[in-house]
Design brief:
The chain has nine helices and five strands. The chain has helices at residues 16-19, 22-34, 44-52, 56-69, 76-79, 126-133, 139-144, 154-166, 169-177, and strands at residues 87-91, 96-103, 106-109, 120-124, 149-152. Strands 3-2-1-4-5 form a five-stranded mixed β-sheet. The longest helix has 14 residues, at 56-69. The termini are far apart. Required for O(2)-independent ubiquinone (coenzyme Q) biosynthesis. Likely functions as an accessory factor. Belongs to the UbiT family.
């Protein structure tokens, strides 16, 4: 049987900054520079409701975001040791538990096994995850103040932390806001 020809790679979607006019992109960039996340906690009744909802939709959003970042700002070769491991992200004040894994094709939702704990559990509040993502806080500060917790395989935890530390966030911010640096 003859081999089928390889399918061409799909084009990457444009970054949000590429879709915005220059002046709007500049104004958004200025606001991002001065953005500070206020202290807040998701109200307990909301967290109780969210914890009862299916966790697949928010997990799909997380894996989509991670896959968009993969190879752009998250180096696949550096993350290779995560492949096949069950990772879990717990958003403590929102009642979310997101189970995912890295495969050859990228990040995917993982089905938690009842008889086995995840290989790595990363826990924090919504506010602290947002501060981490926006680089308002660094992982070490959150970790040593016990606002970011990692349980399980410490080598995987260090890999995640070091990968976050290695991302050139200033270059990414410049790219997203359309500024060349």
């Amino acid at each position: 049987m003859p081999a089928l020809p390889a399918l061409p790679a799909l084009p990457r979607p444009p970054l949000p900054a590429d879709l915005l006019p220059g002046s709007l992109r500049r104004r958004i960039g200025e606001r991002l520079e001065n953005l500070r996340i206020p202290d807040f906690t998701v109200p307990a009744p909301v967290a109780k409701l969210v914890s009862r909802l299916p966790q697949q939709p928010p997990t799909q959003v997380l894996t989509l975001a991670l896959n968009l970042a993969l190879d752009r700002i998250l180096p696949r070769d550096t993350l290779a040791p995560l492949t096949g491991h069950h990772l879990q992200m717990r958003v403590l004040d929102a009642g979310l538990t997101l189970d995912f894994t890295l495969t050859e094709k990228g990040f995917r939702r993982a089905t938690p096994a009842a008889d086995r704990k995840p290989d790595l559990i990363i826990s924090a509040t919504t506010r602290d995850f947002m501060a981490l993502a926006l680089r308002e806080e660094d992982p070490d500060t959150l970790f040593f103040s016990r606002r970011l917790r990692m349980e399980g395989d410490t080598d995987l935890g260090l890999l995640v932390k070091n990968t976050l530390d290695a991302v050139d966030w200033d270059a990414l911010k410049a790219r997203l806001t359309g500024r060349r640096g």
